[in-house]
Amino acid sequence: MFSVIIPLYNKELYIERAIQSILNQTYQVFEIIVVDDGSTDKSVDIVKQINDKRLKLFSKKNGGVSSARNYGINNATYDFIAFLDADDEWLVDFLESIKMLIEKYPNCGMYASGYYADLNGQRSIIISSVQKGNDFIVKDYCIKPYMICHNSMCIDKKVVNKVGLYNSKLIVGEDIDFKLRIASLYNIAYLNVPKSVYYYGTDNNSFSKKIKLKGVFHFFKWYFYPYKNKYSLFMYATKKIVELFKRAYLPALYKNRMSNNKQKQPV
């Protein structure tokens, strides 16, 4: 039922944990597609040592996380595609929870849960504070988009035919762009319980990427996406564009602010 895509680049310290968290799932109908994006450490050797026929390893030249995810999507055989970064993990019932959402809300384009944000062992719960209840259709994604991270979402493969693949030209913000395109055209079913773990403190994650100012200008396209609530889209897009400009112009200041924010993480 599920194709799980793991983009892999130099994560030898974490990749086994990520894969084992999939193999330990209470729901066992899945394939794992690991796309090695030109790793230079022992990541690939570790994957090869894991013996499970559902695990598929592909290797390609380094092209970035978006190209790796796109490669995985193009090689997926199941109808639903879930994503897990190589340094993160799922709780044992993540896939079972997503399956429940699919059965209850069969016509959505995205299915997602809350998650734990982990910084050096300190965890914060990220869920919806806007809508109440155990599960629901998200009324306005742009109001609290960070309640869904890449490791806590699953998409219907048919969605890609309409919204397209990841924009591989984007160094950062590729996940924001992809989710926003989906939210503009499809409903999102949400489980208001954390079922995955996003680790902030690992090496080579999104916060360590350098932003080129030229790449930020793409995000002005967000204002013209066919999102139903134009006001919340405007507010969200503006906030993210300002944040990305700060990261491009003032990387040292932004890095210090993010460090302080993560230590105070809300929720």
Q: Unreliable runs, pLDDT <50, ≥5 residues?
A: 261-267
By secondary-structure content and strand pairing, the structural class works out as alpha/beta
CATH architecture: Alpha-Beta Complex
Task: Kindly estimate the percentage of residues that lie in beta strands according to DSSP.
Answer: 15-25%
Overall mean pLDDT score? 89
Gyration radius, in Å: 18 Å
CATH topology: Spore Coat Polysaccharide Biosynthesis Protein SpsA, Chain A
The level 1 CATH classification is Alpha Beta
Largest sheet: 10 strands, mixed
Task: Provide the helix percentage.
Answer: 25-40%
Total count of domains:
1
What is the CA–CA distance across the termini?
32 Å
What characteristic shape results from the CA principal axes? Answer: globular
Number of helices: 9
Order of helices and strands: EHEHEHEEHEEEEHHEHHH
So, the CATH homologous superfamily? Spore Coat Polysaccharide Biosynthesis Protein SpsA, Chain A
Number of separate strands:
10
How does this structure look, described?
Strands 1, 2, 3, 4, 5, 6, 7, 8, 9 and 10 form a ten-stranded mixed β-sheet that branches. The longest helix is centred in the C-terminal third of the chain and has 20 residues, at 230-249. A hairpin with a 2-residue loop joins β6 (110-119) and β7. The protein has a single domain, classed as Spore Coat Polysaccharide Biosynthesis Protein SpsA, Chain A (Alpha-Beta Complex). α8 packs across α9. The protein is globular, with a radius of gyration of 18 Å. It is built from nine helices and ten strands. The chain has 267 residues and is an alpha/beta fold.
